[in-house]
Amino acid sequence: MFLTLECAVTLAFQAKKPIEYVNALVGTAPLDDPKLIGNAPPPGEELYTGMTSPGAVMPHGVTNFGPINKNLDLANVAGVGMAYNYIHRTMLGFTSGMAGLTFMPVVGDWTVPPERTAAFYSKDKERATPGYYTVYFDDYNIKVEMTAGVLSGVYRFTFPKTDRARVLMDLGRSGGNLEVVGDRTVRGYGERGIRGQISGTSMSGTARTYFVAEFSRPFASFGTFHQNPIQAGSRGSILSGNSVTAGTRAESGSYAGAYLNFKMEGGEQVLVRVSSGDSYEAIEKILEAEGAN
Q1: What is the CATH number of the domain that holds 207?
Q2: Among 19, 79, 73, which Cα is nearest to 51's?
Q3: Which residues, other chains included, contact 255 with Cβ-Cβ below 8 Å and sequence gap of 6+?
Q4: Residue 20 lies inside a defined structural domain of this protein
Q5: 115 belongs to a structural domain
Q6: Are strands 176-181 and 185-190 parallel, antiparallel or unpaired?
Q7: Domain count, the chain
Q8: What is the pLDDT of residues 172-226, one digit of tens each?
Q9: How far is 152 from 71, CA to CA, in rounded Å?
Q10: Which residues pair with 227 in a beta bridge?
Q11: pLDDT digits over 57-99, tens only?
């Protein structure tokens, strides 16, 4: 029995759900045809993109887990203010859209932000669909996945066999406070940012947004770091040195962060459940409610 062309096309469309046709990477690259570029940006700036993010987010969701491959803190401030551009080939971290919080899995040595540790990634292994994003770090052999609920989300980092696996997390330039609780949890809050901007938006719109990050396995060891502020009258660069302290549980200030070390067998995973809210109590209720679904 032979199918008509019309029947074949109908069956082909029925084989996939509408959501499977969505590519969240659309709009993240600039035009490459000079005839279509039109009003080009000033010299020194990147070509404009569609200014979209390929991150994992639910419709009307608060959580937006997305990739960062452009360091806006060190970039031309007059340029396109998007942390992701498809043409860039190194990843710098992943934002949770909460309290200015950034995560980055690495193996071995790392750098205190804003001079972030970069990882080469494979474009053929990068995929973005509604509510899910994944990418692979070629130089670290790390697979990164993330998915989002309405008020919380989950990172999944698959590491190679190593005793130098790290997960870095920091609160960005605006800073705030961060503390390591026990051997599986990091919590804290982001403060009001520079020029009056808010680093992360709380439910009530206040300048302080709390977060909780729960890890699926205990830390082998940990420490904290931050960027030292520029002293008055200093003629130094915009980067003024940093502090890294092993074994400490609390940190505050600009780029306040923590490094969390793990010993991993090949193919083992670290999952991180993250949520934000107006208080730690409110976040615990969110994690319990969305974790049960």
Answers
A1: 2.70.98.10
A2: 79
A3: 112, 113, 114, 170, 171, 172, 173, 175, 225, 226, 227, 242
A4: no
A5: yes
A6: antiparallel
A7: 1
A8: 988 999 999 999 999 999 975 433 333 344 445 556 899 999 999 999 999 999 9
A9: 25
A10: 242
A11: 887 777 889 999 988 888 765 666 788 988 889 999 999 877 7
